[in-house]
Amino acid sequence: MRSSTASPSSPRFSYFLLFKEEFHEPIAAGLGPSPTVLSVFSFFVQNDRDYRTSLWIKPTRLDDFRIVTIESGNPPERPERQRTGWDHEDDEAIDEYEERLNRWQIERQRWFDLERIAHLAKLCSTSHISDVVAPLRGP
């Protein structure tokens, strides 16, 4: 497949989801199909903010194929315990709810906000490590 006809749904061009559509062709000319994660991330961080989308992404590593695919969208919302009746006899069992909540927490950790990634990368390239770690730990 030629880079000019590639799209984010093309197998080796899911990294296009990090960039605005009008820049896909020139970016593909530079990075090509299936670039390394380091190449894509470096390009993402080092180039003008106007190139980037402001999405949430979920990268998935596929070791058998030696690739990373990227999905875009929104992270899942925290599940609520299911209530079915007035007397709560048929409510979702607490252990079932906790299991769903655990699965949600695992899935939620797989999603990243591109703006936060870019900000963190810039901090890492210009700051001492203690300046970067402190904001991540919170107050």
Strand and helix layout:
Layout: H1 24-31, H2 37-46, E1 56-62, E2 67-73, H3 94-108, E3 112-113, H4 114-126, H5 129-137
Antiparallel strand pairs: 1-2, 1-3
Protein name: 855_t:CDS:1
Helix fraction?
Answer: 25-40%
Estimate the strand proportion.
5-15%
Structural class: alpha+beta
What general outline do the C-alpha atoms trace?
elongated
Q: What is the averaged pLDDT score?
A: 78
Order of helices and strands: HHEEHEHH
Radius of gyration over C-alpha positions, nearest whole angstrom: 20 Å
Let me know the largest β-sheet: 3 strands, antiparallel
Strand order of the largest sheet: 2-1-3
Stretches with pLDDT under 50, minimum 5 residues: 127-139
Count of discrete structural domains: 2
Number of strand segments: 3
N-to-C span: 49 Å
Total helical elements: 5
Protein name: 855_t:CDS:1
Organism: Acaulospora morrowiae
Write out key terms for the chains shown:
single chain; 139 residues; disordered C terminus; three-stranded antiparallel sheet; elongated; alpha+beta; 2 domains
How does this structure look, described?
40% of the residues lie in helices and 12% in strands. The chain has five helices and three strands, in the order ααββαβαα. The protein has two domains: 3-75 and 111-137, no CATH class; 76-110, no CATH class. It is elongated, with a radius of gyration of 20 Å.
Summarize the structure.
The chain has helices spanning 24-31, 37-46, 94-108, 114-126, 129-137, and strands at residues 56-62, 67-73, 112-113. It has 139 residues and is of the alpha+beta class. Strand 1 (56-62) and strand 2 (67-73) form a beta hairpin.
